[in-house]
Amino acid sequence: MEFDHIHFYVENAMESRDWFIEKLGFKAIASQTTQHTHKEIINRGRVYFALSSPITSENFVADFLRIHPPGVGDVAFRVRDLNSVVAKAAANGAEVLQPIQQDLQGLRWAKISGWGDISHTLVEKIDDAQILHPTSQLSTNIVAIDHVVLNVAEDNLQSALDWYHQILEFQPQQSFEIQTDKSALRSQVMVDPDGGVKFPINEPASANSQVQEFLDANHGAGIQHIALRTENILEVIGDLRSRGLGFLRVPATYYSQLQAKALSYLPEVDWQKVQEYQILLDWQEMRPEAMLLQIFTKPIFPQPTVFFEFIERRVAWVNGKQMQAQGFGEGNFLALFEAIEREQMQRGSLGKS
Description:
By secondary structure, the chain is an alpha+beta fold. It contains nine helices and 18 strands. The longest helix is centred in the C-terminal third of the chain and has 15 residues, at 333-347.
C-alpha cells in the first residue's frame, strides 16, 4: 500500500488552487465540475492533491464543511488487490461509501470510511499509474508523500489504532510521549508492513496541548499534517521562502548547540543555509551521514489546523549497503513542540507569552 493522493475540502477550489500554485509551486493539471461540486487537481513532482468545493448544499464536501473548517477530507491509498482490501474493510466494520468503480481506461477504485469524518479512497495500482493524472510529467524535488498524521480526541488513541489495524491491517511501529512544562501529547506510528504508508496518530495528553487546540479548531478528529519528501530540501525551502510561505520559527540557540557536530557532517555552505532557512536536523550517532532534515509550515488555513512538513532523508553507505535516514526526527520533537507552543501563545491558546 502507498499514498496515492490527498483530497482537501475547501470553500473555493479555484482560490485554493491558486494559493497552492503561488505558495507551494504546484501545477494545475485538471479540473472537473459536476452538478454538486467543483474539483481542481494539482501536483508537484509525484505528489497529487485534489481540491473540492461545494456548488450546492447537498454533497459530501458541503456535509464536511458544515461541521469542520477547510481541511483534508480524504487520504487515498494505492493497493494491489482492491477487491480483497474492500471486502476485508467492510467485513471488519468500515462503511463502503462508494463501491468499486471502473473507468474506461480500466482504472478501479472505491471509497471507505476512515476515522471520524475522513474517508479513504482505495485505488488499484496499475503500473504505478496515478488515478488523478497518469501522464503528468515529474517536476523537480518533491518525490513523495512521506507520512500523514491524524489527530484524535483524548482517550481515543487506542481505539483509532485498533481501527486501522483491523480495517487496513496497519501495524504499530514507534510510539512517543512528548511533554514540556506547558503541554503534552502521545503518538503511535502505524505503518503498512508491505508498502510506503506511514500514518502516525496523536492524542492530547494535556488540556492545552497543540493536539487539543487542533481538535477544538477542527471540531473533532482530523488530519493534522502532511509530510512531503524531497531529495534537496535546501533548494525546495529556498524556493518556498521566496514565495512567501510561512514556517515555524526556530530559536538561534538550537543551531548554536548543534553547530560543532553538524559541521562534521555538513559542508559549511549547507550549514549556513540550514540556519538561514531554519531547518531542523537529526541523525543517529552510528550513521550520522544518513541525516534527516525537516521543516514545518505554519497552518495553511485561517484556523490552527492543517500544516505541511518538508523532509529529506539522506543516504549513507554502511558496509557496502545504502542506509536511508529513518524515523520522524525524534531528536527535534522537543524543539518542534516548543516552536508550536510559541505559536499557540501568540494565538492566546496556551496562556500568555
